[in-house]
Amino acid sequence: MISSQGNANNWDISDIQMFWGEIAPCDHLVQIYDNEYTFLNTLEGFAGDGFIRGESVIIIATPDHIEALNQRLISHGFDIQTLIANDLYVTLDATEAASKIMVNNWPDEDLFTHFVTSVMTRAAKKTHKVRVFGEIVSVLWSQGHTGATVQLENLWHRLLNKDPFCLFCAYPKSGFTQDAASSIDTICKTHSKVIDGSARPSTELYYMNVI
Predict the structure, then answer these.
(1) Cystine design at 195: which of 31, 37, 87, 182 (Cβ 3.0–4.6 Å)?
(2) What is the pTM (predicted TM-score) of this model?
């Protein structure tokens, strides 16, 4: 069984830039995090490293998470207005995005493919490489649509197999029941790597390959 947390000895360790640039440039990753601070550290590293490498970054997240990420990026000197103007930084509300791909509370594959492809085409206009953070799955999970969440993860995975890119997903651990091992295991197995969601140094990532 895969665990979202664990003893440090169970995880491989990498610095942030090495991880996103060299270890997981075309992976489908998930983090089930203990708290917002830990998650935002990871999201900031994901986006910031993308900008440093000249990649386009798509963030499909809640408005609160987008605002928190923007403030962090600005504090580190990123000119997000210029990045946005050049479609190198694309932010979308996760709930609104979900409404574009769901039919009767279930993800429609054609709508999903059209939506994601159009956004990625827009983001790829000035750079051949795009990375995506997607929080639609977390929104669906929080609404109790567990089957739809797993199906959406599978749709993302199929898209990745056709045209590889880096896709990062995240869920708050509080969204799982106290006896959540089975649910966490199901979610983790739809990904290629799991990022530890407990408190770690902000310059490092602890990760585990999904077998």
Answers:
(1) 31
(2) 0.93
Please say whether the beta carbons of 194 and 206 come within 8 A.
no
pLDDT at 128 (0 to 100): 80
Q: What is the CA radius of gyration of the chain?
A: 16
Please count the structural domains in the chain. Answer: 1
Considering the domain boundaries, does residue 135 fall inside one? yes
Which CATH number belongs to the domain containing residue 176 in this structure? 3.40.50.300
Question: Would you call 128 exposed, middle or buried from its count of C-beta atoms within 10 A (0-12, 13-18, 19+)?
Answer: exposed
Instruction: Note whether residue 85 is domain-resident.
Output: yes
For 163-174, give the DSSP string.
S--EEEEEEEGG
The two three-digit tokens of residue 37, written as one number:
């601070």
CA separation, residue 21 to residues 14, 51, 122, 200 (Å): 11, 11, 22, 20
The separation between the first and the last C-alpha atoms of the chain, rounded to the nearest angstrom, is 10
Helix ranges (DSSP H) in the chain: 16-18, 36-52, 63-75, 80-85, 94-101, 109-123, 136-142, 146-162, 181-188
Mean pLDDT calculated for residue range 36-53 = 96
| Tokens matching residue 73 | 């990026």
